[in-house]
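Write out this protein's structure.
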Amino acid sequence: MVGRNYRLTKDMREAAQALNLKVARTAITLRQAYADAPGQRKLIFEMSYAARDASEEMEQLFRELQPEAVSRNVLAFSKKVVTGVEL
């Protein structure tokens, strides 16, 4: 989780580059929704409009890391379908 313009974020990216570590293009931004989800006993995808940006970030990250799962329709966040079973 990163802050958009935090010095620590820049330092982490530089350290990862120096160590030849792969870093995802999609950043998970520090958001209140991530802190609120466990207390509400919900996934961010199930939360109100206020969690929309967090939900979109997670979906984008998943698509980046697991494109084959998304391309085969194994997981569709917006329809809340997992392996063809309605949630």
